[in-house]
Design goal:
Number of domains: 2
Shape: globular
Number of strands: 7
Radius of gyration: 18 Å
CATH architecture of the largest domain: 2-Layer Sandwich
CATH superfamily of the largest domain: ATPase, nucleotide binding domain
Structural class: alpha/beta
Low-confidence stretches: none
Largest sheet: 5 strands, mixed
């Protein structure tokens, strides 16, 4: 599989289209020759998932292609499964504001690339409220963001994050099963009702955190 990775979070909106053009040129195809457009729908950063969805919608509209939204946490779980072969994976993504996004998945042994069983749908909670079923392997930057909450939970991979390769792999399974949407129907997955706070609200939140840690 051919892919591109950009670590410059602030420049993703500027670099994603040139990277897509490079990939298409390398593969020797045009956008219209693709079967679908896949994107990481979230949960994740508000700006990130909006950018991903907007780019996917624009490309799909222009090329008259279906869209496959992929849950970010499922892509993380697949990366963890492929890394160490874990059957049960709990993906934890730092949601900021003292919270995490998390979900749990189960992969069938020896099944090759297959969609995992969903044990716990994507959830937003405090790190201490993450409730694993059984003894899964944990992965994601939520582990390193809140190490005290996840101390002693078992095997951990704090550096595993969602990548385009896992998004594409899961999208190929969804496409084969006919699980696509139109460009107009594609939406980010938001779990937090309020994604922005005023300066005054942020001061109150920080003051409450400071008081709680005193």
């Amino acid at each position: 599989m051919t892919s591109r990775v950009s670590a410059g979070v602030r420049t993703h909106s500027q670099s994603v289209l040139p990277m897509i053009q490079e990939l298409l040129a390398e593969a020797g195809i045009t956008l219209r020759q693709c079967s679908a457009i896949a994107f990481g729908a979230g949960p994740g950063s508000f700006t990130g998932v909006r950018t991903a969805c907007g780019v996917a919608q624009g490309l799909a509209f222009g090329a008259s292609l279906p869209v496959v939204p992929v849950v970010t946490l499922e892509a993380m779980a697949l990366a963890c499964h492929q890394h160490g072969g874990a059957a049960d994976v709990l993906a934890v993504l730092d949601a900021r504001m003292g919270e995490v996004y998390w979900a749990q998945y189960r992969f069938a042994a020896g099944a090759g690339l297959a969609a995992p069983q969903l044990l716990q749908a994507a959830t937003l909670s405090a790190p201490a409220d993450v409730a694993a079923q059984g003894a899964p392997v944990f992965c994601g930057n939520g582990l390193t963001a809140y190490p005290a909450a996840f101390a002693g939970v078992g095997e951990q991979y704090g550096t595993i994050m969602p990548h385009a390769e896992q998004v594409a792999q899961l999208a190929s399974l969804a496409l084969a099963a006919g699980r696509t949407v139109t460009a107009a129907e594609a939406q980010p997955l938001y779990l937090r009702n309020k994604v922005a706070y005023t300066q005054a609200e942020r001061r109150d939140i920080n003051a409450a955190k400071t008081a709680g840690g005193a």
